[in-house]
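Input/output pair, single chain:
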Amino acid sequence: MKSNKMFYGWKIVIGAVLVLAVTGPAGVAIANIYQNSVTDALNISSSQFSISNTLILSISVLLSSWVSGLLAKNFKKVFLIGSLIYGLAYMAFGLVTNVWMFYLLSIVVGFGFLTSSAMAMSILISTWFVEKRGLALSIALAGLGVGRIIWSPIVTSLINAIGWRATYMTYGAIMLIITLGIGQFIFVARPEDKGLEALGADNLNNHHDHDVELNARVPFTMQESLRKPFFILLLLGAVFVGLANNGGLGQFPPFMQSLHGAQQGATIISIYSAVGILGKLSMGVIADKLGTVIATIWSSILLAIAFFLAASTTSYGFAILLAILFGLGNANGTVLAPLLISAIFPAQTYPRVFGLVNQFLFLGMMFGSLMAASIAEATSYTLAWYIFVAVSLAIIALWGGAYLLAKKDFKVIKKQFDLK
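Output:
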């Protein structure tokens, strides 16, 4: 007889939404709101300030694989320590007196960001869900967009009201309360720790999805996979996803403002930030219902059309359509990446593989905006966006090809949800 009690994994998802709503935006998304105040106070340039974002992202490039292994072994301990470091370092931003202190703290913040944001939540949720994994991940990762929408005006108002130093400290304190509270009292590393099984684990032997049997995966360790063509495509695809995502996120704002003015440009940015929440939710549903290859094709085509519109028209109406399409498509980095990996690898291997793929994803993100800006400065934004059309479409070949090649080696993996 089935219990009507809500599956505990959904409480994990709700906790992840709240955590990501505060940890995700703080690292990069709302960082530039502080820029003018910090550059004036420290007497540094905007480019010097932007090095902070590069340092934060570089930690993910360098340490994702290692941190994912730590999270897999002892999620709760690593998450709580990382969250404590993150909150305290973020508060310490309010105490800096020179740019070198700012850079040092950025490195520390980067570590906290890595241990408590999207990668950590993806690893946690993937252990709790076999069925409805796409839905669960997409709901949790939607917290990134929700947080960006909520915190952007709040941080702006706080800086105007109490100054940038007190704002850093206030945000950091709120981050500590939310992450440590949820980490201690809601997060549980594995269903087995509460005497439960992952959702859908009891149906492993008879459940089918649109790709293959749910419990069929490659039987390789990460080290063995490194020599496989499908894994090379998976890593290259991650770089291209990072390029496409951050190329748009980083350069659409100045591009739109140059075409349509600051106010209308800001409206377009707000649209794709808001639509991004729907994009994450829809991406998870599509992956669950139709499979990861279809989800890859869907997201890549949306991004390609968005970049094509940016290259070929200056109409404000088409700019709004661009924002909608980009918001729907750029969930491939946050939602589709963990779903694709979990569709190829068993749960025993998933955390380490996800960590490595995450490194290549952030590598692409580090250079996406720079690549678009450099091409635009050398020639024009038109050429830059046409190149990003090609980058977006290449993701289909890379990630779609990775899955189809990996599928040839699929074998039934018993208890693929067990991380022990």
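The beta strands are 216-217, 411-412. Residues 226 and 232 are 7 Å apart (CA to CA).
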